Amino acid sequence: MEFKNLETVKSYAKAVVDGSKVACKELIQAAQRFLDDLEDERYELRAKDAEFCIGIIEKTFVHIKGTAKGQPYILEDWQRFIVYNVAAIYLKGTNERKYKEAFIFLPRKNSKTFFASALAWALSLLERNYFSVLYIVATKLDRALEGFNNILENLEMMGEKANFRVLDNNSEHSINRSFYDADGRKTGAMKIQALASDAKKADGLNANIFILDEIHAYKNANEYFVYKQAQKAYVNKLLIGITTAGSNMNSFCYQRLNYCQKVLNKEVEDEQYFIFITKADNPDDYTNPIEHEKANPNYNVTIRAADIMADAMQAQNDPSARDEFLNKSLNIYTNTMSSYFNMAEVQISDEAAHKDLEAKLGQPVTLEALAKLPVQWFGGADLSKMFDLTGACIYGRYEEIDISITHGFIPVTQAKAKAEEDNIPFFWWEEQGWLTMTNSELVDYEEVVKWFKRMKEMGFKIKAVAFDKYNSRDFVRSMERQKFKMEEAGQQFWKKSEAFREIERKIKAKQFTYMQSKAFEYCISNVKANEDAEERVRFEKVGDNFRIDLFDATVVAVKQAIIARDKKTKLNTWL
């Protein structure tokens, strides 16, 4: 059987991978993943379902706005690629599709909502024999209604509205139809409904398809996973999260983006998750049209090259417009919560310094490899008063590269509550090895001591550990029993300012790595800072529900290292 779109999709994937089509890193990985699936004995491609969806969209859906109004909605190659992935790849020898979940991450103005509604329409018809139920969900009802109304207007334009039961009032917005055979027997049904996101009401839902729009606005993970739980009764189910980058790096969506990037990097295995991410690879080069094209799959279609370049130049000339441009046009997460550090700059420094360190070592950067380096390490501890997050750090410099190795501690009884109340992924941090949950009601400082001891036993030459004298008496005594040299670190802001500036300087020089710890990244993104008349920095967290403890522990350790370097310099001068 001829499948007219199959070769188009294959050619698109190959062009992305071989570089003949401009694409970002994540899209290249997604295309390679698709090509690998075609050769993987675990899967088989059944193009019929994907061709059905593409055909339904292009033969029944028309544009409803702009100069193209009334013209058929012809999919772009990247959209065909998405349809083929979610509809055509099956577990070999079964009727079960590979993908149960999808993350589609696109900048604004790439026909995201219209494509989502067309896909919803096609999938509902595809699954009609299984009595399909599809919900279009957004944080606000009017946003969910955009997709719903696209379907409703198309039903009117194709003259089919009378064949569906449509409810479109203040209490419900739904489209329903039952299907019968020639003998009048019911063979299937479909339902499409628009909803405002409500985790409490979602507990009663049961559906095989969800399209969750603008998940960057979700306040916590529960708003997402409650819909995933509503699909348990189905084998072939699909939850599609569609979004643009947001401005809150502590959000569920940002955590989901990080998770998806790990899947594409093959650091985490999740074969049921389809991922389509387009973004700029280098946000610093935001006036480069290549970066514009990488981020926007509809470049030169719905995104005019001249328009996005004009926006880029405006962002260059007006710093106040820069974050908005990066956020909405290049799909780069920004942080607007009075955060001092430019997080794109922080992440670039971590990646660049980590790669540089790997090249110098001639092997992957592991704790074991770092412990063997001829480096003097300095410790820092930021102890919580009773039961909140405690931070520990060892810091060292190897050939101009500053290395911060941090670890967090929190009582397991508090972790769940704090994770839900403050949207902090403590359990994920624990899985990644960045956090220890202590089996006690209060923070067990002996666990902090054990961590420093493990680092020392691994081979790290820890010259001294700095601490805040408050709440630390038992900790200091225990550390001294383990033969650690302890140094009191004053908490006055002028004493910390120099270390803060040193971290900032090394980040700007792309010579600071925090070993890709998202726990540290979370903490540094929450740092708010002000300068006094003498340009000394007073820093604190941006809000009561945020944490900076791992960053604070690093500042304390860096300050101790600066003091030691000054002493060494004076000694060398005297000699």
Task: Describe the protein.
The chain is α/β, with parallel strands linked by helices. It has two domains: 273 residues, Rossmann fold, CATH 3.40.50.300; 232 residues, Nucleotidyltransferase, domain 5 (2-Layer Sandwich), CATH 3.30.420.240. The chain has 21 helices and 19 strands. Strands 5-6-7-4-8-9-3-10 form an eight-stranded mixed sheet, sandwiched between helices. A hairpin with a 5-residue loop joins strand 18 and strand 19. Helix 5 crosses helix 6. It is elongated.
Helix-strand layout with pairing:
Layout: H1 6-18, H2 25-39, E1 43-45, H3 47-60, H4 77-88, E2 89-91, E3 101-105, H5 112-126, E4 132-138, H6 141-157, E5 165-168, E6 173-180, E7 186-196, H7 199-202, E8 209-213, H8 222-229, E9 238-243, H9 252-264, E10 273-277, H10 289-295, H11 305-317, H12 322-329, H13 343-361, H14 367-371, E11 376-382, E12 390-398, E13 401-411, H15 412-422, H16 426-432, E14 435-438, H17 445-458, E15 461-467, H18 473-481, E16 486-488, H19 493-508, E17 512-513, H20 518-525, E18 527-531, E19 537-541, H21 549-574
Helix pairs in contact: 1-2, 1-4, 3-4, 3-5, 5-6, 11-12, 17-18, 19-21
Runs in which pLDDT lies below 50 for 5 or more consecutive residues are: 571-575
State the secondary-structure class: alpha/beta
| Number of extended strands | 19
Largest sheet features: 8 strands, mixed
CATH topology of the largest domain: Rossmann fold
Number of helices: 21
What percent of residues adopt helix (DSSP H or I)? 40-55%
Please write the CATH class name of the largest domain: Alpha Beta
Q: What is the architecture of the largest domain at the second tier of CATH?
A: 3-Layer(aba) Sandwich
Mean pLDDT: 90
Q: How many domain modules?
A: 2
